[in-house]
Amino acid sequence: MSLQRSMFEEIRRNKFLSYIIMLGFLILIGILGGVFGWLLGSPLFGLILAAFIGIVYSLVAYYSGDRMILRMSGAVPVTKEEYPYLYHIVEALAISAGLKKPPKVYVIRDSALNAFATGRDPEHSSITVTTGLLEKLNRQELEGVIAHEMSHIKNYDIRMMMLAAVLVGVVVLLSDFMLRSFLWGGMRGSRRRDSRDTGPWLILLAIILAILAPLFAQMIRLAVSRRREYLADASAAALTRYPPGLASALEKIKNDPDPLVDNANRAIAHLFISNPFRRTRSYFATLFSTHPPIEERIRRLRAM
């Protein structure tokens, strides 16, 4: 199989799996909204409420999410005069990716090796890198990392991950409403009215769903994040036509003795090219990881 065919098959496969996972996300919200509405006496009301919350969350995230992320991470805008080397790579790869204009460039003054992209679409996007990354990677490695982040922008991963975060918020809110309704006894009348037909075991099932739904939603969000990282790796390889560049960069990132980005937090960890927190190797930690194993990412790149 040719290198180009291998890369584009990997891209198609990861896109398909990402959409399947997002469909599962929407089904979970539909079930939760329907159950909540059923407890109130109208499943349709629950679905409408879930849709309303989702729209409000989406609008807030769409128009202000990227600015909040940049502030939270401690990223500062830089000029071409300050970092001409970085700017030239970003501009060249933006042209190769077919973007109408290059993303804005930000820097985090931190010795850790990391980078991320954010924004709502390719026309309103930015790429942020740490100073440690600029200091320790050679040109081909830095091109691989920037191509990875450029791929997140080109593939609209930045929007998909924002949507995933919004959907998690919707699930958490609906679950919280359900649990508070039970605790406050606000639906006692409905439960008494419906208990003859539904039975207490269905009420118990609704409580269990309200407790477990946020956990399931978080697992789905992390699954989306991991699939999009594989997709961005494959897209970056297609963009640079040199998979070893990104593979070598990931090797250096993996061996970074201090991977912690000081201003990073769990809410934005999934955006970085590598988990900015120290990693553990247990199965449980892998299940709830924002990123796929970096060793597997390197293996796939080297196999292209």
How many domains in all?
A: 1
Strand ordering within the main sheet: 1-2-4-3
User: From N to C, what is the helix and strand string?
Assistant: HHEHEEEHHHHHHHH
| Low-pLDDT residue spans | none
Tally of alpha and pi helices: 11
- Class from secondary-structure proportions: alpha+beta
The description of the largest β-sheet is: 4 strands, mixed
Q: Give the mean pLDDT.
A: 80
Distance, first to last CA: 9 Å
Relative strand content: 5-15%
- Mass-distribution shape: elongated
Task: Explain this structure.
The longest helix has 41 residues, at 200-240. α1 (3-40) crosses α2 (43-73) and α1 (3-40) runs parallel beside α6 (157-184). This protein has helices at 3-40, 43-73, 84-97, 131-136, 139-154, 157-184, 188-198, 200-240, 243-254, 283-287, 294-303; strands at 76-77, 104-108, 115-121, 124-130. It is elongated and about 65 Å long. It has one domain (3-73, 157-303). Strands 1-2-4-3 form a four-stranded mixed beta sheet, sandwiched between helices. The chain contains eleven helices and four strands, in the order ααβαβββαααααααα.
